[in-house]
Design a protein that fits this description.
The protein has 194 residues and is of the alpha/beta class. The chain contains 8 helices and 8 strands. It has a 5-stranded mixed beta sheet with strand order 2-5-6-7-8. 24% of the residues are buried.
Length: 194
């Protein structure tokens, strides 16, 4: 059987393929050692979900482990509202709905559907500004791109993954301390502006 892909790694991979490798390296450490502030707040949101402190009993599935045999995926959903058949992913502060956010929801959607839950709507909720973003169910080009991303993740080899050229992106990356120490980013920035 093909190797399983953790749903939480899809967004990382689309942010930068190299982060797939560092995500795995850091998994062996405590989360507290590398989650910067925004990420840490995201974890708290998920912890609330995992501990089942959200919503009246019966209506919501919260923090459930899910698995897709079809796509070889494993992970957790954030929240599923059984009444409205809506799968919800809550994040601390969403400025735009990145492809990684959408694909993370698709992965949860396929996994939950395989478990027999009728998902009809996908939503990303931004908690800081209380905004909701509807995400269409995967089909057509989006579905094709999602499947292609999973293929690329399975074929990934860090030795073939170049450093990100956009050094500003690296400065905001939670894996930078291992991947490219600050000194090398600054040198790179200088080289680009010289
Ligand atoms: S530090 Fe830069 S190259 Fe390394 S994983 Fe992060 S974004 Fe990618």
């Amino acid at each position: 059987m093909e190797s399983l892909i953790q749903i939480s790694k899809i967004n990382d991979f689309l942010f930068c393929p190299r982060s797939l490798y560092f995500h795995s390296v850091y998994e062996s450490f405590s989360d507290a050692t590398y989650h910067a502030s925004p990420q840490a707040r995201g974890r708290l949101n998920h912890r609330t979900v995992d501990e089942g402190t959200y919503g009246p009993d019966g209506r919501y599935l919260q923090g459930e482990e899910v698995y897709s045999e079809r796509y070889g995926l494993v992970g957790k959903i954030d929240l599923f509202d059984k009444e409205t058949k809506t799968l919800i992913e809550r994040k601390s502060n969403v400025k735009m709905v990145h492809q990684g956010y959408r694909f993370q929801l698709y992965a949860q959607y396929f996994s939950l559907s395989e478990a027999g839950f009728p998902v009809e709507r996908l939503v990303i909720r931004s908690l800081d500004d209380n905004r909701r973003y509807e995400v269409p169910l995967p089909e057509g080009d989006e579905l094709y791109a999602f499947e292609g991303t999973l293929d690329r993740m399975r074929a990934f080899d860090v030795a073939d993954a170049p450093l990100e050229k956009n050094t500003a992106k690296c400065r905001g990356c939670i894996y930078r301390t291992l991947c490219r120490p600050e000194g090398s980013i600054m040198e790179q920035s200088y080289a680009h502006t010289a």
